[in-house]
Amino acid sequence: MGLVDLLVVALIPVAKVLLVTGVGLFLALDRVNLLGPDARHHLNKLVFYVFGPSLVAINLAQTITFDSFLTLWFMPVNILITFIIGSALAWLLIKITKTPKHLQGMVIGCCSAGNLGNLPLILVPAVCEEPNNPFGDSSTCSSNAGAYASLSLAVGAIFIWSYAYGIMRSYANSCKEDSFTTTIQTSKEMSNSEAVSESYRQALLPSKDRLASDEYLTHELPLHNLATQEKISVFKKIFQCINTTMKKINLKEVLAPSAIAGIVGFIVGTVSPIRQLLIGADAPLRVIGSSINLTGEATVACMTLLVGANLLKGLKGSDISPSIIVGIIAVRNILMPLLGIGIVRAAQHFGVVGSDPLFRFVLMLQYALPPAMAVGTMTQLFQVGQSESSVIMLWTYVVAAFSLTIWSTVFMWLLV
Fold this sequence. Notes:
The chain is globular and about 65 Å long. Residues 207-221 have low confidence and may be disordered. It has a single domain (3-176, 247-415), classed as Na+/H+ antiporter like fold (Up-down Bundle). It has helices spanning 3-27, 37-63, 66-72, 74-97, 101-112, 118-129, 138-190, 192-203, 207-217, 226-248, 251-254, 257-270, 272-278, 286-296, 299-310, 322-349, 357-365, 373-382, 386-415. It is mainly alpha-helical.
């Protein structure tokens, strides 16, 4: 297949995403207001709690078996690598651009957490639907594509709401503590005159009162066993460290509905008796599987409309430095895909990713995705960098419309 044919195959899915995203942006305009803040809030909840989990569960249940899972184990590892590399590049970007402290957590989140759910669910099956796709029969390709994209969504949700959430929450809390410390220092400066008056009063105390005060200050407390105190102190520090770490990880979000649905779908797919009850044309309880599949079909359309509607906030602009935006775009659209090609090729060389070119295509694609929309949700949750994140999302997704086409073409050219 020629390079031009591969470019067309890569362009069609991206064009579909752009068209539906444009519709979502139009529906969110104030003069239309069909996807206003309240509507987006409720639709987002439906996708988060109902549509998305249904799609993940049924795709995994239909295509994942115990044998096939042995060939997919590298995907969670690959996603973890994307987060680690993205964080390292974000750290360099922060040092180079001298990013303000209140935006550093958001920059790390944008560079490390890619859109591992929405876009693979849209792009990968759409590539398979093209009659001249390089991955073989359209029906088999679409079935496998749904499973790979669903696994990416489930694993990505866990990493985003544990790894990225913990880092962004840590930076947000640090900024709030610095702000609180500054307020305390200001209050202390304002009360300097009161402190000076108190020192004069102490100096004018009678000698007997001063002596009593000195005796009070030098009064020895009862002695305890020093070794016992040290042991208690060590255990207390360990407990505080564990408690702090657990607080930084929002277990409720880590076990998001999509992640739970992924676990359920994996169990149904790999446990043969349950699979025979629910999956297949002759399954006794096939109506349950069909109903879940029908519910999940609404996911892609709703997700894409929400992406367009959420980008509207970025049009209003903010005071963020252009160098930070350019840096994030360079990390997500140039450096990460190049490193991804090397990592996946190395994994293929050592025989850990199998021979399916579609699976390797999904692994490479995970390095070329724009930032996850969940990063914007986290900035709203922590009340830090909301307007800046909207602008970053707008420009990264505009650039991704072109970069995803180019990188998808390159990935397919390398794999076929």
